[in-house]
Amino acid sequence: MTTDTSKDTLQKFIFDNAAVRGELVEISNAWREIQSRHVYPKAVRALLGEMVAAAALLSANLKFNGSIVMQIHGDGLVKLLVVECDANLRMRATAKLREGADVPDDASVAQLLNQHGHGRFVITLDPQDKVPGQQPYQGVVPLVGEDIATVIENYMLRSEQMDTKLWLAADENVARGLLLQKLPRNSNVEGQVKQASEEEDLETWTRAVMLGQTLKQEELLTTDVETLLRRLFWEETIRVFDPLHPVFHCTCSREKVGNMLRMLGKEEVESALHDLGELGINCDFCGKHYGFDAVDCAQLFASDTTADAVAPASSIKH
Length: 318
Prior knowledge:
Elements: E1 9-15, E2 20-27, H1 29-35, H2 42-59, E3 66-73, E4 78-86, E5 90-97, H3 109-113, E6 120-127, E7 137-142, H4 148-159, E8 163-170, E9 175-182, H5 198-212, H6 217-222, H7 225-233, E10 238-240, E11 247-248, H8 254-264, H9 266-276, E12 279-282, E13 289-292, H10 294-302, H11 306-309
Parallel strand pairs: 5-11
Antiparallel strand pairs: 1-2, 1-10, 2-9, 3-4, 3-6, 4-5, 6-7, 8-9, 12-13
């Protein structure tokens, strides 16, 4: 197997003749792009990076054209962690701290997100091509676990009834992760020739998890995908697929910001304009600035659709 190390890489693989699949991901360019917009404390950066790796791993198996949005609503030093990734592994991420939060480098997940036991983990599956009346699927569970991997494992078992194991690590340079999943019996496993017995599936799953548990965080941080795959599973018969390449991509637009202002309502927008003179909105993900003056806002509420009201790109003020 040859991996293009010049790009961020996600490698999918299956265990031959067993309902067990796996993925390894390495995200460096996109992760640095995400960080270039914000300066996060070390502990927050590590959590967000682990969520970035996890979102890519889960998005690689989406069965629809759309996005997966992972959110942690915290009641500690961090208010919100958000990562969005679509089926093409285009992703963006952001974090919001509580005002005045002083985050120690060694802060635990409980300190950061679940000080009072009210933290929540949310996954939203949002199809791009919705049929009339279709709403995104959203699963919400309590924040159970001492690290991001355990939180997601608990969610997958509780909400998806799927045995999942995750190993995640992130620093300022790279976010990496390993995912293993035991698939339901009689599932259609891509690339599989014949299915093993239930006992053989369980044996393969147990062995794969034991091999994954030998992986130390430092090794995960410093070892590329190809080397990790070979080191962990060299005695197993596995089948690998063409690598995929996560990239940073922000979906913000002037039209979406206009929609947000319309949802606030004319009275509230006019009140804000009276106080500020012009409304300036910066995207939380990429930092892009969108400015709306009194004329822009009047057009928003005078038009039938936001697309008719927002100015063309060439006239956007910066």
